[in-house]
Write a structure and sequence with these properties.
Pathway: Amino-acid biosynthesis; L-lysine biosynthesis via DAP pathway; DL-2,6-diaminopimelate from LL-2,6-diaminopimelate: step 1/1. One of its GO terms (molecular function) is diaminopimelate epimerase activity. Its main location: cytoplasm. It catalyses: (2S,6S)-2,6-diaminopimelate = meso-2,6-diaminopimelate. The chain has two domains: 8-129 and 280-286, Diaminopimelate Epimerase, Chain A, domain 1 (Roll), CATH 3.10.310.10; 153-270, Diaminopimelate Epimerase, Chain A, domain 1, CATH 3.10.310.10. 15% of the residues lie in helices and 36% in strands. The protein is built from four helices and 18 strands. The chain is globular, with a radius of gyration of 19 Å.
């Protein structure tokens, strides 16, 4: 029998970033990597991240969250998933201010009081914490004096398609390549190579970012452990703070991803990143042995 068989799930999305919420607070168990990979298959329950909720470890928090990618690996942060679990908890409890805990720290969320009566969709603001720019914190394989631009490129050596990214940790590692036109970048081709580049010992999320104006960034993301995605909240945060740090934008910007817009405010008073965007319920059900890759009827 699969470990997660018959466990209830809720399917949600944040800007098209596909999220599966597993509320394991009543019966905690680990999410096996092989079951996560099986569940992510097109014929099962395709997702970008699983947000697994466990009993709270700290007073005043709703749950401890573990984030599992489609390849079974664990992530430190997922902005779109954080908004989804905030909406899930608001629908369950009626609370609008909810705090979760993760390996990256506390996730302080506010769900719009004007959400639909059904609770099906809402705008959610999530405090994504403080970005880290030191090479050890990202982490990189070796010392780099200035992480606003590091030596890295993809494509032909004499005419690189992507070069000199900014790097930052926003709960997980991110590399942001500045480009003239994101539509011209084949991130599906270069993303896997860059995600696994030796300079990133824990792999990295790879983004191509186009500065439209001091208030607007257009972003395409290859997400670590998930691949090309319609949206990545932590990547939007990473691009916003990296752009501001490079003097390309102000500290409050709209980031447009294939799935829609996020508003990112890198608060000057304490350097916390506030991300605001939608979250949406899709459907719910129970996990089956077939979905989890186990032969039906085999214990």
């Amino acid at each position: 029998m699969a470990a997660l068989e018959n466990r209830p799930f809720v399917k949600m999305n944040g800007l098209g970033n596909e999220i599966v919420v597993l509320d394991l607070r009543d019966a905690p168990l680990a999410v096996p990597a092989e079951e996560a990979r099986a569940l992510a298959r097109p014929q099962a329950l395709p997702f970008d991240q699983i947000m697994a909720l466990y009993p709270p470890r700290s007073e005043g928090t709703a749950a401890f969250v573990r984030i599992i990618n489609a390849d079974g690996s664990e992530a430190g942060a997922c902005g779109n998933g954080t908004r989804c679990i905030a909406l899930y908890e608001a629908g369950r409890t009626g609370e609008h201010h909810i705090v979760f805990e993760s390996v990256a720290g506390l996730l302080d969320c506010t769900v719009s009081a004007t959400r639909a009566a059904s609770g099906a969709t809402a705008a959610v603001t999530a405090d994504m914490g403080v970005p880290h720019f030191g090479w050890r914190d990202i982490p990189l394989a070796g010392p780099v004096a200035d992480t606003r631009a590091i030596e890295l490129q993809a494509g032909p050596a004499d005419a690189p398609v992507l070069r000199a990214p900014s790097v930052v940790n926003v709960g997980n590692p991110h590399a942001i390549f500045w480009v003239e036109d994101v539509t011209s970048v084949d991130l599906g081709r270069y993303g896997p190579e860059l995600e696994h580049h030796p300079v990133f010992p824990e792999r990295a999320n790879i983004s191509a970012a186009q500065i439209v104006s001091p208030q607007h960034i257009v972003l395409k993301v290859w997400e670590r452990g998930a691949g090309l995605t319609r949206a990545c909240g932590s990547a939007a945060c990473a691009a916003a703070v990296a752009a501001a740090r490079n003097g390309l934008t102000g500290r409050r910007v709209t980031v447009t991803l294939p799935g829609g817009d996020l508003v990112i405010d890198w608060r000057e008073s304490d350097d916390h990143i506030l991300m605001t965007g939608p979250a949406e319920f899709e459907f719910e059900g129970r996990l089956t042995a077939a979905m989890l890759g186990a032969p039906t009827g085999v214990a």
